[in-house]
Amino acid sequence: MPARMRILRAADYRRMPWKNGGGETREIAVSPTGAALDELDWRISLATVASDGPFSAFNGITRTLSVIHGAGIQLKIGDEAPVALLTTSNPCTFDGEAPAGAALIDGPIVDLNVMTKRGRFRHEVRRLALSGLIELTTAGDATIFFCRTGTLFCRLGTLSGELRPDDCVMFESAGRPVHLSAAKAADVYVIELYRELTRSG
Predict the structure, then answer these.
(1) Domain limits at 144?
(2) CA distance linking residue 9 with residue 164, whole number of Å
(3) Which of 88, 117, 146 is the last residue of a domain?
(4) Does residue 154 sit within a domain?
(5) Helix (H) or strand (E) holding 189
(6) What's the DSSP call for residue 158?
(7) Nearby residues of 88 by Cβ (< 8 Å), 6 or more positions away
(8) What is the 3-state secondary structure of 17-79?
């Protein structure tokens, strides 16, 4: 399969209200393309949280939240004690049907939200503080690099591109060596999506 690299610009993300009407989402990418919330295999989005309140419920979905702008939130999931989720925190993964809500620490925040439908896809999200040049090999059926801060240069074979804050680049095959570089420090999120094999009767 030929190498494929797709750059997704922040200015092009599709805006829509939250499922529960409590905020706004900018959809980065969804599969299948154009899928409604109850039909998705996976979805990557940015959500603006401007007030305290509950999150929407997503049955059968595993989701991961990362605060990318703002002072942070106190995140409460089910009966667990609230935890502070900051721009310096590791991504937080939980079941979408679990009752969850957030209290703002000091003003509005923006979070990066990754969702996968259990039984169809699973995902992994990690933060990467980058300065200089590194090579990573894509592992998932799709691998996305989200640039939170700084300027990120990426290259796959003869394909190359530059990311600014809130831009993404997507690679849709595994086992590809990707070169990433930043002249100054860049904060990057690595999102890997894996198709789950289902068994039939």
Answers:
(1) 122-195
(2) 8
(3) 117
(4) yes
(5) strand 177-195
(6) T
(7) none
(8) ECCCCCCEEEEEEEECCCCCCCCCCEEEEEEEECCCEECCCCCCEEEEEEEEECCCEEEEECC
Round to whole Å and give the CA distance between 177 and 68: 26
CATH number of domain containing 94: 2.60.120.10
For residue range 4-46, what is the model confidence (pLDDT) as tens digits?
A: 899 999 999 999 877 666 678 999 999 998 888 788 999 999 9
Whether the model pTM is above 0.85: yes
> How far is the C-alpha of 160 from the C-alpha of 61, rounded, in Å?
33
User: Which of 87, 117, 147 finishes a domain?
Assistant: 117
102-122 pLDDT, tens digit each: 999 999 999 999 999 999 999
> For residues 68 and 110, what is the distance between their CA atoms, to the nearest angstrom?
6
DSSP state of 167: -
CA atoms 165, 179, 89, 186: torsion sign: negative
Q: Show the tokens assigned to 12.
A: 């092009």
- Please report the sign of the dihedral spanned by the C-alpha atoms of residue 48, residue 8, residue 66, residue 42: positive
Q: Is 89 helix (H, G, I), strand (E, B) or coil?
A: coil
Do 16 and 113 lie in one domain? The reply is yes
Residue 37, both tokens:
């919330």
CB 113 within 8 A of CB 65: yes
